[in-house]
Design a protein that fits this description.
- It comes from Anaerofustis stercorihominis DSM 17244.
- The protein is α/β, with parallel strands linked by helices.
- The chain contains 14 helices and 17 strands.
- The protein folds into 2 domains: about 240 residues, Type I PLP-dependent aspartate aminotransferase-like (Major domain) (Aspartate Aminotransferase, domain 2); about 50 residues, no CATH class.
- It has a 7-stranded mixed beta sheet, sandwiched between helices. Strands 1-2-3-15 form a 4-stranded mixed beta sheet.
- α4 runs parallel beside α11 and α12 runs parallel beside α14.
- The longest helix is centred in the C-terminal third of the chain and has 22 residues.
Length: about 400
């Protein structure tokens, strides 16, 4: 491990505060480092590894596709790409798919689409309304939409004509929208902003407003989508259908892929020459996505998310009752947060030393985003370790 960590610190750019652990392999909801130590993983690659590790079916699907094609570019069709797109369309209330490689690229595509649609079919409005405390990615467009100044420091000038309102403040959002806008982008459950779900009522009012003003409603489901709420898409949980869904993370179960899913009417904002992605929806990524979505839909995983999400939340609520310094437990499905009165970094480090991987969301919040295949036994093990750490506090 020492050689890998030392070499990595010398050759990798310093963009992550990396923990000096070298992971070697995974199995189910567990990771193993290069010394053979075992870790219960409630991070899942930051809500990416939906099926955990070493899923035999995913391994086989990718292996078979690798023997045929990796990539041919989007100048042509591939069966894997078309089948992956059709699977998303057939299981949603939207109509067209654009594939890319990441969540930031997906939100970037959604932002471009909102302006192009207004340019071609409306009054050329350019304003995009986003939420404070949001996170949408690290590219210039997506980081401009991100409503946290710490991510934008030193990057100015950033994309013009993007404004932010308080999350869940409908009056402020309506005022901005009525003064002219082409798009509204929001996370149904804010992820990096502290695991904060919107209310159904708020989202339904925003949907009506967008219908009235012909503004594209974009749901950033990069973290909260692809089964994490107990529904394939988070919008189903909230009973609100947006014009655009941006997705990535769990979509490939660990294989890099992103996408936007768009209504037929709004999809006409894109035409050849407006947007593209060389690697987007390549045969390997499409094969991974097709397998992951099929398994989530057809092998009881959505029911497991609902059941285990409620169970994990109840266990976290029990910890809240036991320890007065826990101020809140919130979230949906297997995307939960526990807020404390003080920074959680020491708790996360202590958990690591005891074989449990946890993640923060902001300074004072522990985030729980395990693989969607997690069991009650796994949750009990997590809570037992966490309880011991909190008890010492």
């Amino acid at each position: 491990m020492e050689d890998t960590v030392k070499t990595g610190s010398e050759v990798l750019m310093n963009t992550y505060g990396r923990i000096p652990v070298v992971f070697d392999r995974g199995e189910g909801v567990y990771l193993y480092d290069d010394k053979g130590n075992k870790y219960l993983d409630f991070v899942a690659g930051i809500a990416v590894n939906a099926l955990g590790y070493n899923d035999e079916g995913l391994n086989n699907a990718l292996s078979e596709q690798m023997k045929k094609l990796y990539h041919v570019s989007n100048l042509y069709y591939t069966k894997a790409n078309v089948e992956a797109a059709k699977l998303l369309v057939d299981n949603s209330k939207l109509d067209r798919v654009f594939f890319c490689n990441s969540g930031a690229e997906a939100t970037e595509a959604a932002l471009k689409l909102s302006r192009l649609y207004a340019y071609k079919f409306k009054n050329k409005e350019t304003k995009i309304i986003a939420m404070k405390n949001s996170f949408h990615g690290r590219t210039f467009g997506s980081i401009t939409a991100t409503g946290q100044l710490k991510y934008q420091k030193g990057l100015g000038p950033i994309l013009p004509d993007v404004t932010h309102v308080d999350f869940m403040d409908y009056e402020a959002l309506e005022k901005e929208a009525r003064s002219g806008a082409c798009g509204i982008i929001l996370e149904p459950v804010q992820g990096e902003g502290g695991i904060r779900p919107a209310t159904k009522e708020f989202l339904q009012k925003v949907r009506k407003l967008c219908d009235e003003l012909d503004i594209l409603l974009i749901f950033d489901e990069v973290q909260c989508g692809i089964g994490r709420t107990g529904y394939l898409f988070a919008y189903e949980y909230f009973d609100v259908v947006p014009d655009v869904v941006a997705m990535a993370k769990g979509l490939g179960g660990g294989f890099p892929i992103g996408a936007i899913l768009v209504s037929e009417d709004k999809a006409k904002g894109f035409e050849p020459g407006n947007h593209a992605s060389t690697f987007g929806g390549n045969a390997l990524a499409s094969t991974a996505s097709k397998y992951v979505v099929n398994k989530i839909l057809n092998e009881g995983i959505l029911d497991n998310v609902k059941e285990q999400g409620e169970y994990l939340k109840s266990k976290l609520e029990s910890l809240k009752e036991k320890y007065p310094f826990i101020t809140d437990v919130r979230g949906v499905g297997l995307m939960l947060g526990m807020e404390l009165e003080f920074p959680v970094a020491d708790i996360i480090n202590s958990a690591l030393s005891k074989g449990l991987l946890l993640l923060n969301s902001g300074v004072n919040i522990i985030r729980f985003v395990p693989p969607l295949i997690v069991s009650k036994g796994d949750i009990d093990n997590c809570i037992e370790i966490l309880d011991g750490i909190l008890d010492e506090i």
